Amino acid sequence: MDNNNDVHLIDHPLVQHKLSLMRNKEVSTNSFRRLLNEVSMLMAYEVTRDMPMQEVEIETPMEKTMARVIDGKKLVFVSILRAGTGILDGMLSVVPGARVGHIGLYRDPKTLTAVEYYFKMPQDMQNRDAVVVDPMLATGNSAIAAVERLKELGPKSIKFVCLLTCPEGLRAFHGSHPDVPVYTAAIDRQLNDHGYILPGLGDAGDRIFGTK
Length: 212
Ligand code: URA
Fold this sequence. Notes:
Elements: E1 7-9, H1 13-23, H2 29-47, E2 53-59, E3 64-70, E4 75-81, H3 84-94, E5 99-107, E6 114-120, E7 129-133, E8 136-137, H4 141-151, E9 157-161, E10 164-165, H5 167-176, E11 182-184, E12 186-187, E13 190-191, E14 197-198, H6 204-209
Uracil binds at residues 136, 138, 195-197, 200, 203-205.
């Protein structure tokens, strides 16, 4: 893995337009979820650009030929519960053959540190490319803890995908994992004292699931 603090800003107009709609506090839960799904599909396009492929023999109406197809089973999306589910759904709709792992982490509201309550990954992680998904890379604590746990299983590669991040989050994350590239649709101004991103979009989990 590289040690280069890679950040990929996905500034495609469609992604930026949908993200702006999502930031609006008046957007309904239903629309927020649909928009996150659409943005995630578009982000999947960038994230999977160098994804492994394999050649298979097919038969066109004219003749037999070799054709390239995605080696989807080698890819594992790792969703950080619960907000990661929002990105996971969109990504799975464009890479339906991918495997899925889950890491359950919650933020201790006082210390803002990540506490693990669930961890389930597919077999053979050392043969897989992992894409960790969580909409908000804020303090970086959950992302750092999730990637640390994942590295114990030795996947071939790890990428981290979020919708939003901020300079503090990127600094913290790459301070611990300089080898893991981050894919994001925006780098916002800053964190507030409660570990929320400004201007941000609020609590991603609450907005996806309508829990507030
Ligand atoms: N988690 C969220 O859902 N929103 C933030 O702004 C920060 C962390």
